[in-house]
Write a structure and sequence with these properties.
By secondary structure, the protein is an alpha+beta fold. α3 packs antiparallel against α4, α7 packs antiparallel against α8 and α8 runs antiparallel to α9. The protein is elongated. Strands 4, 6, 21, 22, 23, 24 and 25 form a seven-stranded antiparallel β-sheet that branches. A six-stranded antiparallel beta barrel has the order 7-16-19-18-17-20. The protein has a four-stranded antiparallel β-sheet with strand order 8-15-13-10, with no helix packed on it. The protein contains eleven helices and 30 strands.
Length: 593
């Protein structure tokens, strides 16, 4: 028993000593290894810390992945910018960043500058075929054979009967001269000539001589064939010699007068072919040649008139019909540098593009100012600043410009480079300095019309709020209310060319509102909304508002990245094309007072 106890003590002592030696040998080493491992891991985390940004809004910088707080897109790692061997002001873009930002490029080429110019106008009488039918006999209108406008008369047709005391006296003189015609033939001939001066024919004069009795009334015969467009007298009226009693128009040939806006004048010239249609004659297309272009612009409507002379067989074309035409116009130059409109960023004072270049280090973009020539629909002619064969960004230019601002390099809003401005609305850019303050010089119209247009604008703002809320049902309801407000505007308050201009705008405003109101798809509604706002802009620029100010705002990402406009009563950007997805994305282009 004693021996066993001694043996157990020896074993326990040995075990304790072994544990002590093991801790001395391995414990310190393990602590050292663990500490070294932890130190290496920490250094690795510090070295690999990533900044995350948004490809569409580069001003967003976060230390962890997530969604962009502006547009909701997934954030991407921010890649360190390399130094460009080409230009220190160039912006480097990785393939990943270009793909996510949907940046597309194209090679600049030359082409013959062609443009489809759309014109609106109406049919008018040919002024050279309008005649005044007058009475050559002074007296009282006893009878009118043509009593309404629009009636057709033939040359030589009796159209009125006139009683003339002077003509009765002249006949009595003729009878007296007839008695002494053998001795004084000159007096007899003078009496006959006096009657001829009143447009009596030899046959009528012979009838008077044969009857031997003075006629009390004489017929007035049409001197031309045509349609009565204006009746100037009534039965019983007294007329002077030479006074017009009818206006007669020959409609076998008419004029088609088109409005040409100032911006389109460089494209329109005498001799251009015009293809046009008339709403009341569906399925038919007419063609003509411009034979006259107004040398003077109307100071109220800012348009010039282009004239086509059109044969009117069958009288299909009636005066005052509205006409829509187009001209495939071209400039004299044949090798113009042409780029898409999406490639150009415009500040009101400067126009810039981003030119692409490549090195072994990657892809770079340089900002370059250009001089814009005429617009070709969806393209611009570049007068200076680009060479044929250069490659430029044609999509995603706002993202490139935003990256340039954040890097302190030359950009659209900071041509000299430097720190990016604060308070960005879109892509890191503050467009506040780019606003155009426009005070409308309205055409002279009835103030009642402007008040009605302002009421329509107020209903429009309610529809705009529904777009901001992305509520398709609400948009549809407000669009129908806005359409009623549009229908309540009395177009008869406008006269002349302003009336015609408003009718032209209605051709877009009404169908667009109807499509928005009849749709329950927000994407379809927003697409039509972009079309509506372009036409509404013309209305507000021409007629203005009643003591009100509106902000004409723009988002380049709307309408499938083609850009779209809207009006707001407030300067703050609240985007109706994206709503909460990108509520503050956009800029103010004009302040219309």
């Amino acid at each position: 028993m004693h021996t066993n106890r001694k043996t157990i003590l020896i074993v326990l002592s040995t075990l304790a000593i072994g544990l002590l030696l093991g801790w001395l040998i391995f414990g310190g080493s393990e602590s050292t290894v663990t500490e070294e491992h932890q130190h290496e891991h920490s250094a690795e985390e510090v070295a690999g810390e990533t900044t995350w940004t948004c490809s569409m809004h580069p001003q967003i910088r976060q230390h962890e992945p997530g969604d962009c707080p502006i547009c909701g897109m997934d954030l991407i790692p921010l890649e360190g910018e390399q130094n460009s061997e080409i230009d220190p002001n160039a912006v480097s873009m990785s393939a990943t960043a270009m793909q996510l930002a949907n940046i597309q490029t194209a090679v600049v080429g030359s082409s013959e500058p062609l443009k489809v110019v759309r014109l609106n106008g109406k049919v008018q009488e040919d002024e050279r075929l309008i005649f005044s039918q007058s009475s050559h006999i002074p007296g009282r209108i006893e009878d009118l054979m043509v009593n309404f406008t629009g009636d057709y008369v033939k040359k030589g047709q009796v159209i009125a009967s006139v009683y003339s005391p002077d003509l009765v006296t002249a006949q009595e003189e003729l009878f007296e001269a007839q008695k002494i015609k053998d001795s004084q033939p000159q007096l007899f001939e003078a009496s006959k000539e006096k009657l001829k001066n009143w447009k009596l024919t030899d046959e009528q004069i012979n009838q008077v001589l044969a009857s031997g009795t003075a006629q009390q009334t004489f017929d007035v015969m049409a001197e031309v064939s045509g349609y009565i467009t204006l009746k100037k007298v009534n039965t019983g009226d007294y007329v002077r010699r030479g006074q017009a009693i009818y206006e007669i128009a020959d409609l076998s040939r008419v004029w088609v007068l088109f409005d040409v806006y100032e911006s389109d004048l460089p494209w329109i010239k005498k001799g251009d072919k015009v293809s046009y249609t008339i709403e009341s004659l569906p399925g038919e297309t007419f063609e003509g040649t411009i034979d006259y272009l107004d040398p003077v612009i109307n100071p109220r409507t800012r348009v010039a008139k282009a004239r086509i002379v059109q044969s009117n067989k069958g009288l299909k074309l009636k005066p005052e019909m509205f006409v829509s035409g187009k001209v495939d116009a071209k400039l004299p130059q044949t090798d113009a540098v042409v780029v898409p409109k999406t490639a150009v960023m415009w500040t009101g004072e400067r126009s810039v593009v981003y030119v692409k270049s490549e090195t072994d280090q990657g892809v770079y973009f340089n900002m370059r100012e250009v001089d814009l020539g005429p617009a070709l629909g969806e393209s611009y002619v570049i007068e200076n600043g680009l060479q044929i064969g250069e490659e430029i960004a044609v999509n995603g230019t706002f993202s490139i410009d935003a990256a340039a601002q954040l890097a302190g390099k030359p950009s659209m809003m900071s041509p000299e480079g430097g720190t990016a401005p604060t308070g960005h609305n879109h892509g890191g850019m503050d467009m506040g300095n780019d606003e155009q303050n426009v005070t409308i010089e309205s055409v002279e119209v009835d103030p009642a019309f402007v008040k009605q247009l302002t009421a329509f604008y107020e209903d429009y703002l309610k529809m705009n709020e529904a777009f901001i809320a992305t509520d398709a049902a609400k948009v549809s309801a407000e669009a129908k209310n806005t359409f009623k407000a549009l229908a309540a505007i009395k177009m008869e308050l406008l006269k002349g060319d302003t009336h015609m201009a408003w009718m032209d705008q209605l051709n877009v405003l009404k169908p667009s509102l109807q499509k928005i109101g009849n749709s329950t798809n927000i994407d379809e509604q927003r697409l039509e909304y972009a079309t509506f706002n372009q036409a509404f802009y013309k209305s507000l620029k021409m007629f203005g508002l009643d003591n009100d100010t509106t902000y004409y705002q723009y988002c380049p990402m709307a309408n499938g990245d083609q850009g779209a406009y809207w009006f707001s009563a407030e300067k703050e950007i609240r985007n109706p094309y994206f709503g909460d997805m990108m509520l503050s994305c956009g800029e103010t282009r004009e302040i219309i007072k």
